[in-house]
């Protein structure tokens, strides 16, 4: 802290980091009552550090690192922008303490690798507080802490304190950012931290000597009872969310790519996204907003997978070999796999359910799905804005007639405006063929009933389904795996309300795009029908917002992009492979990008993205990939993480 004097004053610009090199030679010499007060008070706020991994961001000459070496930590690291500061630190620290020079806002530290991050008198120098909070949320393990100290902003403003030091009689001022405490706390809370402690200590007799030696005893007396600094201790929430973007709305313009207006029409223009909505699709581009140039690509609405079980995202196919006799119904399959494949099931169930659910969501995201009908109980992580896909949450459900004894109560307890989803007619035996009639006899077949599978259908039951206004979600490759057959072309064409689902990897071939390929090439459905099954049809059946499944002004900004083809949107979709989906925007956030698209992204859109390799293809994802891999490989073994039959590897973090 310093007051204005008549001495020569040099003010450095915000971008001039060399000021800290100049400061390094006198940093340990000049007495500073703020640092003395902080050291005296902050030690009591440190958590137990024995065996912990600790990082000091803005470590300077190692003032705190030299103290922390005595706490029995497992590892200790320091980062600073000044090589001269680090030179001085190196001479006072153990060789086991790692030092890194970095001027980048992206810290060169692995995800979820630190139990404590210390940031002493650093925040005032940062231009981008949100970026720092984001990096802390990436680095700190769930349950870990950040300890932040800085000059008290209210007192600094009232007393006109400056950050300054003296070299050869010249006073050098350092520019700072003024932020009220409320703002600092709000930003870190937005990025997944909870406040544990906030103290605002005042100078005491221990600091009096420094003021007296500087001839400023009157200042000391004047500051009696006034907070000089603040110390903020925050704890990382225990969550698997990536916390990858600021909560504030942002604007992004997608330019150079035609946008699908439906299965057979493109619109040339700029797709402007504001927050989580599509603001406009027009020719003009606003030069003041961030731009993503998608020249060479086309844009489609995010796909809707109308049926999945996300918690089985890491499971392999479980069933009989291709040469064995097919199952007669789903209950026969369910009982058999728990007997024959119990070891595999138990092993995968040891992986925390939340981890398996995230992997199930990632399986969908990679193939361009932005909305999933999850046919099980909701999980709290579904509500996180950072969850990879939107999960349908407003519906009633039962597993099936065979596994749900209270199905009528469940149906009638579901609000009349919501869909009711149930597996039905999933088999080829007589009992499976009776299930549609049985549901109708129980008065459970009406316009809000969504049947899943419906393999055992006849012209009579199809007519009944249409008459009652019910809907069907077909999962062709799942049926093929279990029963060696699926719905025919005529059956698909006869159903008035029908959508497509992938089911889970336990029985499915791969992902939703594999289902699309199958009904196109093997069943012979036309491209327009298929397009509607994974967009508008699914949205209507699941009672989603009217704009989901479409790209429309004021609609939800769920879109995907892939390399342009000279054909209609529907025809392009039926030929799309998972490795060709190069961009997914979910609720206005960049959720997935290929390396080629990633290189085009505005810098702030890259924040929090991590690199994944799947079947030899690289993709940047906005998800806590390293943590998810660690949890899965802890049970399955290194290199054994597979989703949808494709092996995946964690590569790096931004």
Descriptive report:
This protein is α/β, with parallel strands linked by helices. It has two domains: 9-236, Rossmann fold (3-Layer(aba) Sandwich); 303-653, TIM Barrel, CATH 3.20.20. Helix content is 30%, strand content 25%. The strands form seven sheets. The protein has an eight-stranded antiparallel beta sheet. The chain has a seven-stranded mixed beta sheet with strand order 4-3-2-5-6-10-9, with helices on both faces. It has a five-stranded parallel beta sheet with strand order 21-22-23-24-25. Strand 27 (583-586) and strand 28 form a beta hairpin. Mean pLDDT is 89; it is low at 2-16 and 242-248.
Architecture blueprint of SSEs:
Layout: E1 9-11, H1 18-27, H2 33-42, E2 53-57, H3 65-68, E3 75-80, H4 83-90, E4 98-101, E5 114-120, H5 129-139, E6 140-151, H6 153-159, E7 163-167, E8 170-174, H7 181-190, E9 193-199, H8 205-213, H9 217-222, E10 229-236, E11 251-255, E12 259-262, E13 265-267, E14 270-274, E15 277-282, E16 290-293, E17 297-301, E18 303-308, H10 330-340, H11 342-349, H12 353-366, E19 369-374, E20 390-391, E21 396-398, H13 407-413, E22 420-424, H14 430-441, E23 449-453, H15 459-468, E24 471-474, H16 476-483, H17 489-494, E25 498-500, H18 512-523, H19 527-533, H20 536-541, E26 559-563, H21 569-574, E27 583-586, E28 589-593, H22 595-598, E29 610-614, E30 617-621, H23 625-636, E31 642-643, E32 646-653
Parallel strand pairs: 1-8, 2-3, 2-5, 3-4, 5-6, 11-16, 18-19, 19-20, 21-22, 22-23, 23-24, 24-25
Antiparallel strand pairs: 6-10, 7-8, 9-10, 11-14, 12-13, 14-15, 17-26, 26-27, 27-28, 28-30, 29-30, 29-32, 31-32
Helix pairs in contact: 1-4, 2-8
């Amino acid at each position: 802290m310093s007051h204005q004097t008549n001495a020569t004053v040099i003010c450095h610009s915000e971008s001039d980091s060399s000021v800290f090199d100049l400061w390094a030679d006198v940093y340990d010499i000049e007495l500073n009552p703020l640092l003395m007060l902080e050291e005296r008070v902050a030690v009591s706020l440190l958590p137990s550090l024995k065996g912990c991994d600790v990082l000091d961001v803005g470590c300077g000459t190692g003032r705190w690192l030299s103290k922390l070496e005595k706490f029995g930590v497992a590892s200790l690291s320091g980062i600073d922008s000044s090589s001269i500061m680090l030179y001085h630190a190196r001479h006072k620290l153990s060789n086991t303490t790692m030092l890194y020079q970095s001027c980048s806002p992206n810290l060169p530290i692995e995800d979820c690798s630190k139990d404590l991050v210390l940031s002493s008198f650093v925040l005032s120098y940062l231009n981008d507080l949100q970026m720092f909070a984001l990096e802390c949320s990436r680095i700190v393990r769930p349950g870990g802490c950040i300890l932040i100290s800085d000059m008290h902003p209210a007192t600094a403003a009232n007393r006109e304190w400056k950050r300054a030091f003296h070299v050869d009689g010249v006073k050098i001022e350092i520019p700072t950012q003024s932020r009220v405490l409320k703002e600092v706390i709000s930003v870190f809370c937005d990025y997944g931290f909870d406040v544990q402690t906030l103290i605002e200590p005042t100078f005491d007799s221990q600091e009096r000597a420094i003021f007296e030696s500087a001839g400023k005893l009157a200042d000391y007396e004047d500051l009696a009872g006034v907070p000089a600094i603040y110390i903020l201790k925050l704890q990382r929430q225990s969550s698997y969310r990536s916390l990858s973007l600021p909560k504030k709305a942002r604007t992004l313009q997608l330019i150079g790519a035609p946008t699908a207006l439906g299965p057979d029409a493109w619109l040339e223009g700029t797709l402007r996204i504001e927050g989580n909505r599509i603001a406009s699709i027009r020719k003009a581009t606003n030069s003041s907003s961030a731009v993503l140039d998608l020249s060479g690509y086309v844009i489609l609405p995010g796909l809707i997978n109308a049926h999945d079980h996300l918690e089985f995202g890491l499971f392999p196919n479980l069933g009989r070999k291709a040469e064995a006799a097919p199952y007669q119904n789903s209950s026969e399959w369910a009982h058999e796999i728990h007997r024959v494949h119990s070891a595999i099931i138990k092993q995968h169930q040891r992986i925390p359910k939340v981890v398996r659910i995230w992997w199930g969501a990632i399986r969908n995201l990679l193939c361009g799905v932005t909305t999933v009908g999850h046919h099980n109980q909701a999980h709290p992580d579904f509500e996180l804005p950072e969850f990879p896909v939107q999960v349908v949450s407003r519906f009633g459900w039962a597993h099936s007639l065979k596994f749900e004894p209270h199905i009528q109560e469940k149906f009638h307890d579901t609000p009349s405006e919501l869909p009711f989803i149930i597996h039905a007619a999933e088999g080829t035996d007589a009992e499976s063929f009776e299930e549609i009639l049985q549901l109708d006899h129980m008065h459970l077949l009406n316009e809000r009933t969504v049947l899943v599978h419906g393999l055992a259908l006849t012209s009579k039951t199809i007519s009944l389904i249409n008459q009652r206004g019910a809907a069907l979600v077909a999962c062709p490759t799942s049926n093929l795996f279990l029963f060696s057959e699926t719905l025919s072309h005529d059956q698909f064409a006869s159903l008035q309300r029908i959508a497509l689902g992938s089911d889970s990897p336990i029985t499915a071939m791969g992902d939703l795009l594999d289902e699309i390929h199958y009904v196109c090439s093997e069943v012979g459905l036309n491209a327009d029908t298929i397009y509607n099954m994974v967009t508008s049809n699914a949205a209507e059946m699941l009672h989603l917002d009217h704009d989901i499944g479409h790209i429309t002004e004021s609609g939800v900004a769920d879109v995907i992009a892939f390399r342009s083809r000279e054909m209609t949107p529907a025809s392009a979709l039926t030929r799309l492979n998972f490795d060709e989906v190069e961009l997914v925007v979910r609720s206005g956030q960049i959720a997935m990008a290929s390396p080629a698209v990633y290189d085009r992204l505005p810098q702030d859109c890259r924040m929090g993205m991590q690199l994944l390799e799947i079947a030899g293809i690289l993709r940047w994802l906005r998800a806590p990939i390293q943590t998810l891999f660690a949890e899965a490989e802890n049970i399955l073994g290194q290199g054994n993480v597979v989703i949808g039959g494709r092996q995946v590897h964690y590569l790096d973090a931004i």
